[in-house]
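**Sequence with structure:**
===
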Amino acid sequence: MAVERAATELAAPRLNGNHLRTIRHHASERTIAAREGDIDRYLRANFDFKFAIYRHCGNGHLLFLIETLWLQAGPFLRKLVEDTKMTASEVLDVDSHEIAVAALEAKNAQKAREAIASDIRDAANYLLSHAKFRKPS
């Protein structure tokens, strides 16, 4: 959460109209996928949304770190989603993407940073509270 918050805060003042249109598009795709119950499309749009922001943070090392963490966490998150039997539309209950988009459009780096943090924290809490972990045999 710390590195994604930092990347969002750094990116906020660097985003231009084209970047914001792309970010809005991915946020919209994510919502549509969730409403249609398409978890695969939702997860892809979520990745596209977040990295459309992070790519503009101006810090290659930070971006590399986020990419590395996503590669490690991605399979775990996929498994959690599958094991919770969570529907894609349920993720909209813990969604802060629209708040993040509005903050980015307003160039409010602090609010965008906190919206991304809330998105990560709320989704993780939801998944972990609904996960079914098997005891090792």
